[in-house]
């Protein structure tokens, strides 16, 4: 009887631990699906997905969120740590019909093959393996859901800020707007991005990704003739510029207001 009693206590404690772990799963807390994209060629990428406003008329806006280096892995949940809760809160509060995709980059691999602490870089000829899979994931979702292709958005932090710049530089006419946070871009890509609405954030004291990465790109964009770039340099802020960026509802308001114009209005 005594042995059974202690066994019951141990079982209850173990069950409680499992329940606590399950309750702490941010994907469940945020009501997001945990899925895996497979491209049929041996490549796979875990991602979380939220389909918001199913009951609303019309097609979906689509947001691709690219996380930072600290959220890499295969648990398909760590990538929800920063930015995603604030974005979903805004979408739900304002009843926006939107498809949100948050892929997870594997451990040890980057969204962009370049050192993050470098003061400049040249965009690689080909996207990294995780970025290529993220691009394929996006293509697949455009076929799966009725998405308004004039309302495709991308945002990301740190390594994902680099990824945001990289993706729009490779596909400048595809997106309606982008929000790169504490990332870096190839200055030579400014010309092709001068018509894209951009909302750029960086901390003035960032030593992980040098602040000049954003400063210099914004300057290059303006010199190329951009009138659609906004720059917010956060005072006395280190690497964590995503908290003030994403906690401000005006950031999301600006994003969802953007619409891609007719391609005939673009002059590259």
Please provide a written account of the structure.
By secondary structure, the chain is of the alpha/beta class. The chain has two domains: 1-29; 31-265, Alpha/Beta hydrolase fold, catalytic domain (Rossmann fold, 3-Layer(aba) Sandwich), CATH 3.40.50.1820. The protein is built from nine helices and eight strands. The protein has helices spanning 2-23, 26-29, 84-93, 129-144, 159-170, 190-193, 212-223, 242-247, 249-257, and strands spanning 33-38, 44-52, 60-66, 98-103, 147-157, 177-181, 198-203, 229-234. Strands 1-2-4-3-5-6-7-8 form an eight-stranded mixed β-sheet, with helices on both faces. It is globular and about 45 Å long. Residues 1-22 and 264-268 have low confidence and may be disordered.
Tags for this entry?
alpha/beta; Rossmann fold; 2 domains; eight-stranded mixed β-sheet; 8 strands; globular; disordered N terminus
